[in-house]
Amino acid sequence: MNQKRGRQAIKRLSPDKKDEVQQKDVVKSKGKQQKEVKKTEDTVEKKGEQKIEKQQIIKGEDKKVKQVLEIEQKFELGDGKFSTPTIKIASWNVNGIRAATKREQAVQYLHDNKFDVICLNELKADQAVFDKENLGSKFGKHYVLYLNFCKTKGGYSGVAIASKVKPISIKCDIGIDKHDKEGRTLTAEFEKFYLVACYVPNAGQKLERLDYRTKEWDVDFQNYLEDLKKKKPTILCGDLNVSHHEIDLANPAGNKKTAGFTQQERDQFTNYLQKGWIDTFRHLHPKEVKYSYFSARNNSRQENKGWRLDYFIINKEVTNAIIVSDINTNIEGSDHVPIECEVDLRKL
């Protein structure tokens, strides 16, 4: 019914009925106005809550950033200059710093003066345990120690860099929250290069983290490394949790659906190298069979049935700076063995 026909209908009604109809219209009108007012109030309230929530998120992120900065500010920094033309770097997945340092050979290795930098991964400790058990004393006094622990649970992940030279800067993690909770990377900036110590996430026994590993972590971490190499030559080292080719593990046929040798992980590693990075061991030893990880079962180490999971990677523009890249199978103390390289700083 349009407004004109409505008014004509009201005119034909008795005075009492007119009043009743008009009152109903007033009530309807007021009800409509109240609904509109309430809707406006709800919208304003919702916007207010969203604004508060956004402010809280921003404050939370600011607080997190502030905490990271405070942690990084505690590190001892310097000019990042080495006094020798060449340096030696070691990287070792210790599979638990407390267990490893109960082995005399491991402690001797961490005290070895021949290395300018030693990178460790899979510490399996937190700051409280590290301090309580004085684990820093397991390293030689000629080293300054830099640590990044898992933030979500103790006894998991974690990386360290022990250096004779204090770096210009130290960065924990890669700056993406979903990746930064497990303490998997530590970046040290020296005068002529960046050094990234890394423990890449494992895809899991049932491959439950395969998608996260290949579609999220690998993508974001590779982008992080790409940004670094635009500024300075970059060396990546650590347990990268992938055997790239069949030569890199003892039983390739039986492990095609095993974490570390799935096609997805291998393809992502190929994509990464094709962006301009070099696997230094395979570059210098194209046909050598040598492994850096041995299962604790089935006499794997004694029978030399292992995996090559640990790498030194460098951007290809400075490939000739790598003098040595090798795997030290003589050292015990973990299910992994150390990897070692020598770098000519004059060629960086």
TrEMBL record:
GO terms for biological process: base-excision repair. Residues 1-10 have a biased composition (Basic residues). The record marks N241 as: Transition state stabilizer. The keyword Transmembrane helix does not apply. CDD domains: Ape1-like_AP-endo. It is an enzyme of class 3 (hydrolase). Signal peptide: none annotated. Its EC number is 3.1.11.2, 3.1.21.-. The active site is at Y199, D239 (proton donor/acceptor), H336 (proton acceptor). Probably binds two magnesium or manganese ions per subunit. The record marks D310 as: Important for catalytic activity. It holds the Pfam family Exo_endo_phos. Residues 1-50 are annotated as: Disordered. The record marks H336 as: Interaction with DNA substrate. Mg(2+) binds at N93, E122, D239, N241, D335, H336. InterPro entries: AP_endonuc_1, AP_endonuclease_F1_CS, Endo/exonuclease/phosphatase. GO terms for molecular function: DNA binding; DNA-(apurinic or apyrimidinic site) endonuclease activity; double-stranded DNA 3'-5' DNA exonuclease activity; metal ion binding; phosphoric diester hydrolase activity. Its cofactor is Mg(2+); Mn(2+). The keyword Metal-binding applies. Belongs to the DNA repair enzymes AP/ExoA family. PANTHER family: AP ENDONUCLEASE (PTHR22748), DNA-(APURINIC OR APYRIMIDINIC SITE) ENDONUCLEASE (PTHR22748:SF6). This is DNA repair nuclease/redox regulator APEX1. It comes from Paramecium pentaurelia.
